[in-house]
Structure of Putative nucleoside hydrolase protein:
Amino acid sequence: STPVIFDCDPGIDDSIALLGAFVAPELDILAITPVCGNQPLDRTVRNALQICELGGRADIPVHAGCHRPLCREPIHGQFHGTTGLGSTVLPDPSKTVEPTTAVEALIAHLGRAARGERSKITMCCLGPLTNLALALRICPEIAGGIDRIVMMGGAFREPGNRTLTSEFNMLADPHAAQIVFAAGVPMTTLGLDATHQVMLLPDHVAMFAQKSGRISQTVAELMAFWDRNDVRRYGSRGGPLHDPLVTAWMLSPNFFESAPARVFVETESPLCLGQTVADWYGKSGEPANVDVVTKVDAQGVIDLYLDLMSRYEER
Ligand code: BDR
Ligand code: CA
């Protein structure tokens, strides 16, 4: 199976992405590294621990990441409720966070891979990129241990979701995003152009409520909270399945089409902070660094998740 690390800020959609990954034998989850993002760090760590227990994966080490973005003031998510898990209340975690930090864990795992002591690792990034950027700044050689970065982030032909131009994960730490994009590692990004193609509709939520085995009620509750009910914006009810597309890409890359581009992140303009600026036609003179996902088989992704969640029946 493919060794992966989930760097994330759970987060309702992060939690769905993790619950999907937990039951996929194709993925060997080495660690989860929560960061300050949708909620402050203490919350994203707590939520990650709770989701591991809910999913029966208390075996996965959780390493706490950065308390703040690299340079800017922290901002938090808007659609995840006051705890980051909507209205869902989960038991206090009995599992505890690891003594080593996320950045130390990334340097250790990716360092071993870079030295050829283990196979290369795929970074599944679901939040602001602070942890990975800091690890790369401390030990640039760990880039050699990354097989690919598969991330949710950016807005290319779509407008932003947090500001006019910018998607939340990019805006929350634009400097980190720019460092990661420039690291010279193969990358795939699922930005709003991709994630807005997969809307989780009330009918879907009803199906998940029936099909998600022993965690059905929690999954349906999380998903119901995710419905923006903003037809004007999205053209339908429902909420976009942002982060779960990262897990889906890992399991079924055939559901996705992408185009290569050089991507830069705006780090200075007050108006456009966090904007992902793509050079599609080689005008910058720099080679493409990212596969930008442009098209998604939405039905395929929903069916994949229904299948993944049904596996909780046996767990
Ligand atoms: C991203 O922002 C967060 O609120 C979600 O978890 C997702 O990672 C979407 O813009
Ligand atoms: Ca997220």
User: Anything to note?
Assistant: Residues 8-9, 11, 13-14, 38, 126-127, 243 surround calcium ion (ligand 2) (CB under 6 Å). The chain is about 35% helix and 20% strand. The chain has a mean pLDDT of 97.
